[in-house]
Write the structure tokens for this entry.
Amino acid sequence: MTTAYFDHGQPPKPSNHIRLMVVEDQHITRKTLCDNLAMEPGLSVVADAGDDQTALALLTRTSVDVILLDMLMDGSLQQGPTLLGALLAVQPTARVVVLSGYADDQLIVDAMTAGAVAYVPKARFWQDMLLAIEYAAKGQHYVDRATLDRLYTLPFAGNLDRNPPSNLLDRLSAREQEVLALLRRNYSRNDIAAALFIAPDTVRTHTENIYSKLGVHKREQLPLVLARLTRPRY
């Protein structure tokens, strides 16, 4: 099956524009997303793809800021967190916003743990999409309130504080902030050590300090707390 896609040859927009890639297997949905997002001030849709291999190929030659990714696509060899990780391996600086038509809480948790910074249910596309893109472009987490509240009820969330102080991140040192930025991207301990030119044991110490200060006990809980801290206060 041949998958239609676009490598958008539009004139470059100002550097403050957010460059988007849409990865969605449903052609009508993908085209609607691209057409509507292209009309938004500050956004440029630079590429779109209908399967995993096309998306990976496009990323090798197209620089993007934010990837809108459908987690479950027909005709793709890689799905979900595996595909997300593959995309970030090609372009580590990109931020991923997960799109899903399925209320699969574990899939959301797995995606966020794998490096996604935002989640938008397809039922709330137009209510949440622009906010999710804005937050993602800043490297911040975004999950709509209803979904986030539901995730906090899952067993893995344990006794996480549902209303952490808004200044919680201010408790982190400058080095801990750097480590946290890489943890958000699902970097391993060794990858963080190499990126920051420090020893893996030092990374472990910083990670333990981050967890302690943010009140989390394992890596899977980290995206929930970060999403709670950076969500819109509505």
In short: Residues 1-15 have pLDDT under 50 and may be disordered. Residues 65 and 93 are 7 Å apart (CA to CA). The beta strands are 6-7, 18-23, 43-49, 66-70, 95-100, 118-121, 142-143.
